[in-house]
Amino acid sequence: MISIEGLGKVAGETRILRGVSLTVEPRTVLGIIGPSGSGKTTLLRCMNGFERISEGSLEAGGVRLEAVLGEKEYQKRVKLLRRQVGMVFQHFYLFPHLSVLGNITEAPVQVLRQPRAEAEARALGLLETVGLRKSWSRYPESLSGGEQQRVAIVRALAMKPEVLLFDEPTSALDPRRSNELAVTLRGLVEQGQTMVIVTHSMKFLEDVADRVLYMEAGEAVELGDTAQILNDPQDPRTQDFIRHAD
Ligand SMILES: Nc1ncnc2c1ncn2[C@@H]1O[C@H](COP(=O)(O)OP(=O)(O)OP(=O)(O)O)[C@@H](O)[C@H]1O
Ligand SMILES: [Mg+2]
Fold first, then answer.
1. What is the pLDDT of residue 172?
2. How confident is the model at residue 175 (pLDDT cuts 50, 70, 90)?
3. What is the CATH number of the domain that holds 179?
4. What element of type H or E holds 144?
5. pTM above 0.85?
6. CA quadruple 202, 205, 211, 216: dihedral, nearest 10
């Protein structure tokens, strides 16, 4: 569950987000679309504490951040938030010196203090679900872009986050891989995962998202069911964007 109210973000002289309010129900996928520079990545980064919010509040995985909190309390809550909210970055940032298994078990062992054997067993199970169990001993540089991405997803899942955030997960994938990713992600939703996915691909959105948010110039312009936003947008700004999307 995510709940955001009146969220604003100001960096120096620049206002990046203003008055963003939304909720994401558990076990659903929210897709976020909008022109380049509209604030999509920044909003995701606020959701896992990488950016401090300047106004309003944000609650995810039972942890509440408020702009008015003092720095020390805010950082304390960000630490808790990061345990509940995982992020798969646009560029996957796998550790090049660790094997697939090492990449996945690093954080559960170091941060969650899971026994290594337990973390490895769980990692192999998760790799199985994305069709990569046999690749557990390989190194990232030997994997294709799509395979690296699936490892990055498993690495995020290994931390058992309540919410998973994705920034343009299909940007490095061909249409078939993109399709496979949609199937993988829907499978995770069936198992209870809540997700927020920023994407430029309307096809991918149709395949994965329950609801869609259209953003423009730092504002949450329109939020609705996927079919409604794609086929029957109400706000003229959303209509204009959808009309030009491929
Ligand atoms: N730390 C910062 N200081 C000043 N401006 C910033 C900062 N971070 C982001 N911005 C600006 O805020 C705006 C929103 O950026 P953001 O990366 O969130 O957009 P986006 O919607 O993800 O775009 P894209 O689709 O190109 O990835 C951009 O104009 C960006 O240059
Ligand atoms: Mg972005």
1. 72
2. confident
3. 3.40.50.300
4. none
5. yes
6. -50
* Lowest-pLDDT range of 87-96, 131-140, 208-217: 87-96
Q: Residue with structure tokens 């996945």? A: 104
Q: Tell the residue number behind the tokens 């964007």, with chain if given.
A: 241
Q: Is 111 in the pocket of ligand 1 (CB under 6 A)?
A: no
CA of 220 to the centre of ligand 2 (A): 15
Question: Tokens in use for 155?
Answer: 């690495």
Q: Cα(first)–Cα(last) distance of the chain, in Å?
A: 31
Number of domains observed in the structure of the chain: 1
Q: Could you tell me the distance, in angstroms and rounded to a whole number, from the CA of residue 55 to the centre of ligand 2?
A: 21
**Ligand 1 atom nearest to 218, measured from its CA:** 14
E strand or H helix at 140: none
- Determine the structural domain holding residue 163 and report its residue range: 2-244
Adjacent-strand bridge partners of 166? 88, 197
Residues 6+ apart with CB under 8 A from 204: 169, 170, 178, 181, 182, 197
